[in-house]
Amino acid sequence: MQTRLLHATTEGIHEAARLLRDGLLVAIPTETVYGLAADALNPKAVASIFAAKERPMDNPLIVHIADMDDWAPLVKEIPDNARRLAQAYWPGPLTIILPAATCIPNEVRGGLSTVAVRFPSDPIAQAIILHSGCPLAAPSANRSGSPSPTNAARVMEDMQGRIAAVMDGGDSAVGVESTVIDLSCEKPRLLRPGGITPQMLEEVIGDIEIDEAVTHALKVGAVAASPGMKYKHYAPKARVRLVKGTADAYIAYVNRHAADGVAALCFDEDTEQLRVPTVTYGHRDAPLEQAHLLFDALRQIDEIGAHTVYAACPKPEGVGLAVYNRIIRAAAFDIINTIHVVGLTGPTGAGKSTVADAWRQAGIPIVDADEMARRVVEPHSPCLAALTAAFTDAILNADGTLDRRELARRAFADPSATKTLNDITHPAIMAAIRQELENLADNGHALAVLDAPLLFEAGADALCDRVIAVTAPAEMRLARIMARDGIDRDTALLRMHAQPDDTFYTRDGVTVLVNDKTPDALREQALAVIAERWCKA
Ligand code: TXA
Ligand code: MG
Q1: Over the stretch 278-297, which tens digit does the pLDDT of each residue have?
Q2: Gap from CA of 90 to ligand 1 centroid (Å)
């Protein structure tokens, strides 16, 4: 079948109406998204919608009308709250569910006893409904699982060859599907957020319940109030992961995970700072704009060929709740909680551990890079296996643990051996640190410190939002190393000179704490510098 593109002229509208009366499928523009329409009272026509969309038969359809008088015949009765909502928001992006009249085919109801009705405000949609002379059943005009189409070209991508025609009505104004409210039960229940916000509904009918599924994944085995909520939705082929947190934390997280095939679905404000290809869906504080752009942005993601997309999280308020509801489904509820990571580094003897202790006592979790380095070479770890392959099992103790001294002897013998060591251990340590940070974030921590003497050498500064270095005058360091390790001046000097000098740590962008007074003074500085940042994050 060749799918025709119709234009919004008088002839075009009459042609669309004629095709619909003949029991064929026509995609029509509405103010929310494009709908795939059929005569709602013709079971065969309705059944062909499910075939064209590859939609599960138990997922019911919305019936569209274009005259207030056409509502009553479709439902058992119109209760008072339904009438008031219709008066307030019809025509518009609101769908009302009520017990169905007997004329509604089972196919439309998806086997339920209720029916969803909507009076769209789009003038082209209204003209087509009026001219066809029948109520139109119309789900969004995408193939099941794909983002809903918001212009005729996007409908064609999914429906070319599957339906009789597409009516071109330009871009959909709202961009996300209608608000769905169920008035068939005792307490009005919001099943799907949309352009008509919960506040707008409550202004007219008082308290409503918001279905769990609006913001959460359906629990295994639970029955969906709205069957559509149990299916995977709005998903591009790429894996979408939703990143929660401040703008800074989002950007840092994405940049930390930059790689080939990784992209960002972000706000306009973020693009300049992101180091991966971006697709934007509006400004951070503009939910109407986000709703308008989201579905097309989701489709653009596949066009840029990304395999993983980190999405910036919209504020789930007002129309933003509808945007959030769609994006968590596009992400299949894969949500990443971000954490602000402060790297702590500095040369030996400068006072790094005093700073770390002060922060630990203030309740800030500290990830110790040395501890991670020990953890990745535990017996039976892939990292230890790789080291043994490279340096022979002479580096193993009799009990299978790593003989660090022997490894050091072999690995530091020449630069190429050192490189081999670093190539094996650094990625494993980085992965372990990353995992530890993600665990902390999942447990609700907003801030963590990565304590890493070799932060820059290992490239772990890339995991940090900010780096703080502790330095101290050489004489003071020397005295501390001698006291701490019980060694003489010459040995302590050797140890100091084995490390890079201060300028290595005090590079651009690093906050430097100079430890040239008392430990208490250093602790005070340490707490002040982190509190200042904490408030900003
Ligand atoms: O804005 C819209 O509502 C668009 C345009 C075309 O009007 N239509 C649309 O339809 O989004 P669809 O089929 O993609 O989504 C309808 C949603 C589904 O989640 C479906 O399960 C739910 O409404 N629904 C329909 N009838 C229902 C009923 N009787 N009880 C519970 N949920 C129902
Ligand atoms: Mg849909």
Answers
A1: 999 999 999 999 999 999 99
A2: 16
191 lines ligand 1 (CB under 6 A): yes
The residue whose two tokens read 């095709």 is: 19
Rounded Cα distance, 24 and 164, in Å: 6
Residue with CA closest to ligand 1 atom 7: 35
Q: Which of 287, 282, 281 is nearest to 309 (CA)?
A: 281
CA of 175 to the centre of ligand 2 (A): 12
In this structure, which CATH number among 2.170.120.40, 3.40.50.720, 3.40.50.300, 3.40.50.11030 belongs to the domain 239-336? 3.40.50.11030
- Cα of 400 to ligand 2 centre, how many Å? 58
For ligand 1, pick from 144, 176, 177, 230 the residue to mutate: most ligand atoms within 8 Å of CB.
Answer: 177
Single-letter amino acid code for the residue at 23:
G
Ligand 1 centroid to Cα of residue 116, in Å, is 7
- Fold match, 239-336 / 340-535: yes
> 298 CA distance to ligand 1 centroid (A)?
20
Mean of the pLDDT values across residues 409-420?
A: 94
Does residue 35 line the site of ligand 1, with CB under 6 A? yes
Residue 282: exposed, middle, or buried by beta-carbon count in 10 A (0-12, 13-18, 19+)? Answer: buried
**pTM, 2 dp:** 0.75
Over residues 95-103, the mean pLDDT reads 98
User: Which ligand has the minimum distance to the alpha carbon of residue 182?
Assistant: 1
Which residues is 471 bridged to in the sheet? 514
Q: Please tell me the distance from the alpha carbon of residue 13 to that of residue 167, in angstroms, as a whole number.
A: 8
Which one-letter DSSP state was computed for residue 268? G
> Considering every ligand atom, which ligand is closest to the CA of 146?
2
Q: Report whether 456 contacts 503 (CB < 8 A).
A: no
Strand partners, 341: 448
Q: Separation of 95 CA from ligand 1 center, angstroms? A: 8
- CATH, range 340-535: 3.40.50.300
Nearest to 6 by CA among 35, 36, 23, 27: 27
Amino acid occupying residue 476: M
Ligand 1: which of 59, 62, 184 to mutate, most ligand atoms within 8 Å of CB? 62
Domain 4-214 has CATH 3.90.870.10: yes
Q: What is the pLDDT of residues 157-188, one digit of tens each?
A: 999 999 999 999 999 999 999 999 999 999 99
Neighbouring residues of 492: CB distance < 8 A, sequence distance ≥ 6: 349, 478, 481, 482, 485
User: Going by CA atoms, what residue is nearest to atom 12 of ligand 1?
Assistant: 139
179 lines ligand 1 (CB under 6 A): no
Burial of 272 (0-12, 13-18, 19+ CB in 10 A): exposed
List the domain boundaries for the chain.
4-214, 239-336, 340-535
User: Cα separation of 394 and 200, whole Å?
Assistant: 73
Distance 102 CA to ligand 2 centre (A): 25
Which run of H or E residues covers position 93?
none
The whole-angstrom separation of Cα 53 and Cα 46 is 11
Q: How far is CA 7 from the centre of its chain?
A: 37
Which amino acid appears at position 321 of this protein? L
